[in-house]
Amino acid sequence: EVSLLTGSDKADKQITCKIFPENAYYQQVIWESSDSNIVSINEDGTLHAVAAGEAIVSATSSDPACTEKVACNVVVHKGVSSITLSSEEEVIYEAGKVRLTAEVLPEDAENREIIWSTSNEEVASVEQDGTVNFVGIGQAVITCMATDGSEILSECKIQTVKGVKSVTLSLNAATLLLGADGALSTVALNKTVQPEDATYQAVTWSSSDESIAKVDENGIVQAISIGKATIFAYSTDPRVSDTVKASCIVTVGNAISSISFSDITGDIAKGKSQKILVTISPEDVFNSTLKWESSNENVLKVDSSGTVKAVDVGKATITCSATDGSGVQCSVTYSVIQAVAGLKAQEANVILFAGQGYALQVSVNPADATNKTIEWSSDSSIVQVQQDGT
Question: Residue 373 forms beta bridges with which residues?
Fold first, then answer.
């Protein structure tokens, strides 16, 4: 007796028939089915189940002189032809579960019972009602198989994950400058996803206004125009992708492109003060605060408003620097001099006769004046004076 199942690869089976003697001239066999609507058989002895029921398959020799016939009882059962699961792929979060259902066809199959199994017990377990339980992080395949021997099955891929709880950024606020070098016109935002072993560690980036600031897939923000924009980082965890996010407010302004001085005198008298007039370009810079420095404060001091004060004789360079990070500077070098406060002649009055000469002596006050050169002049119709005072 042979059992066959319809609707599966178990629907076919080959049977054989031996002929005696083995060296008989006629070695061919003629096959016949009592009911080809139940089971058919081809010339090589392959049975094919057509419908549920029983039929007799017989074999006779092709030798006309041989009348012997052998028979085999074939029982055909209606088997399972397909199993369709409610889902082909599922994601199960930590400590979670999912219920799979199976549609077994045909509905009138003799045995429609199924059995569930998992490819990885350390990742996911499965109950015989199709409930799949989280066990550990990873991947597993859940298989639903018919028990009627047809070996018909269906599979569902399971990915178990640890969910994301929070996303944070390295900066909550940032300032970018237009017209500055790349280090000031861009900023790299670094994201942190918690917990550290969450399955979905990636984020998607977006800008509230790409006409002001753009962000790429690596979190690099580029200044585009003056204004404010908010940069968002959303978790790629599908369960919380709309709610778990972090943000950074980006302010974009103009960088200082140039600093220039006006009304500058190269010399300044000791003890005197002078304010340096400054022009910044462009006019609408984001940060116009300037930093003032003197190369030698023993000679020249400068305050935060750009007012310099001569302290002692010598040279010093005053430098004005932008504090917005653009690196723009402007400098001027001053010579601090000791000015002449007065001149004093040794004689207040001198009487000379015509043709007579006299060497006038004049002292410069203070004695450490930077330039002690004296210029002489007179009414040349009465006296003539040389530049040495004679």
Answer: none
Return the bridge partners of 191, or none: 169
* Cβ atoms 328, 359 nearer than 8 A: no
pLDDT tens for each residue of 270-318: 889 999 999 999 999 999 999 999 999 999 999 999 999 999 999 999 9
Mean pLDDT of 92-110: 95
Q: What radius of gyration, in Å, describes the C-alpha atoms of the chain?
A: 52
Higher pLDDT, 380 or 163: 163
pTM recorded for the entire structure: 0.65
Looking at the DSSP bridge assignments, the partners of residue 82 are 105
Q: Alpha-carbon distance 255 to 184, whole Å?
A: 9
Structure tokens at 253: 């302004």
Tokens 């096959």, located at residue: 31
